[in-house]
Amino acid sequence: MARRRRGEAETFSLSFLDCICCGFGAIVLLLVLTKIYDPVTVDRPPQELEGLVEQLEDTLFDIRGESERLEARLKSITDQKVDAEERVYRLRGELSRLRGQFEATAGDATVAGETLGELLSARQRLTEEMRRLAARAKERKPGGAVGGIPVDSEYIVFIIDTSGSMRQFNWNLVLRKINEVLNAYPRVRGIQIMNDNGAYMFGQFARTWMTDSAQLRRSIAQRMRTWDAFSDSNPADGIAAAIRTFWSADKKISLYVFGDDFSGNSIKGVVDGVADINKPDASGRPRVRIHAIGFPIGFGGIGSSDNRSTKFAALMRELCRRNGGTFVALTERG
Q1: Is 64 helix (H, G, I), strand (E, B) or coil?
Q2: Cβ–Cβ contacts within 10 Å for residue 255, how many?
Q3: pLDDT, tens digit, 9 for 90 and up, residues 115-126
Q4: Angle between helix 108-119 and 214-224 (nearest 10)
């Protein structure tokens, strides 16, 4: 019998063992992988789950309570902001009013000094200007007239048409005439400026008298250059508002109406309306004097597309006649 070769038996044995080892290793690997990815089952008792739910509900309530507290705090902060803004607006308005009051009354100290100077005039040397003014004061009779207009009043109200025609054609002349009227009253107890609709030049002093001073007169002249209140060219509202607001039995008051035309429908209606509120006193004199100056939009040959300027002249002439005043029609803008 032939003998088998040694090399063939060894080769077959190694291959068989390799296969067995590889198969065993693969089985072990599959078992390991399968064990790692086994499903995890959460199995908790119902009591534990109920406790967890209660805990989450408590947390939710806490969050809601904190949210409500934050909303309430936010609302409080918002309200405080609104209150602060309103206070700022009020303080700005008060500051504006105080500034206007300061500008209008800054000259009071000077006036007080002048009054003291008058009391001590026996010890002072009069200047030529003071002598001239004193001479003019002696020549002027109490209750006399300047340019035909009586100047015996202690309080004066200007009622000025601020319409486009007045501002475009006559405003420089208006400024000059206001200055002339004020110069005719070296010293009065109260001044007020309104437009023909009853709007006040200085809103912070509405419905009250402004104390006369050199500073106030300068403020009036300065403010007039930029004053642009709405006007319907009808002085009826301004006259009525001035009489109702400022008339007092113990005050002598004059109204000065400045305008160039009348847009109302009835002259008689305005005259009768003023007569109802400006009733005469026991001596037969009206409560306030009404003077007027007509400016040349249609006066003196300067034409107009309608007769509104003529109506203004007729209205103011009749109002002045009935209310103890004087009407002056200017014929040129010079």
Answers
A1: helix
A2: 29
A3: 555 544 544 444
A4: 140
Chain-centroid distance, C-alpha 112: 33
Compute CA distances 265 → 20, 34, 166, 268, 327, whole Å: 127, 108, 20, 9, 21
**Buried residues in 188-203 as b, exposed as e (16+ CB within 10 A):** bebbbbbbbbbbbbbe
Q: How far apart are CA 289 and CA 198, in angstroms?
A: 17
Report in angstroms the alpha-carbon separations of 154 from 115, 118, 179, 288: 18, 20, 17, 11
Residue 328's SS3 state is: strand
Residue 240 CB neighbour total at 10 angstroms: 17
Beta strands in 165-264, from DSSP E residues, in sequence order: 190-195, 253-259
Are 311 and 261 spatial neighbours (Cβ–Cβ below 8 Å)?
Answer: yes
For 294, phi then psi, to 5°, come to: -95, 130
Distances (CA, A) of 332 to 112, 174, 225, 313: 40, 12, 21, 15
Tokens in use for 194? 């309104």
Separation of alpha carbons 201 and 160, rounded Å: 10
C-alpha span between 127 and 121 (Å, rounded): 11
Distances from the Cα of 109 to the Cα of 67, 115, 116, 215, angstroms = 61, 10, 11, 10
Q: How many residues does the chain have?
A: 334
Contact 216, 178 (CB under 8 A): no
pTM comes to 0.57
Which residues of the chain carry a pLDDT beneath 50?
Answer: 1, 11, 111, 119-120, 122-130, 133-134, 137, 140-147, 300-305
Token pair listed for 43: 């199995």
- Give the integer Cα–Cα distance in Å for 259 and 173: 11
Contact 196, 240 (CB under 8 A): no
CA distance 43 to 62: 29
**Which residue has tokens 């990815």?**
37
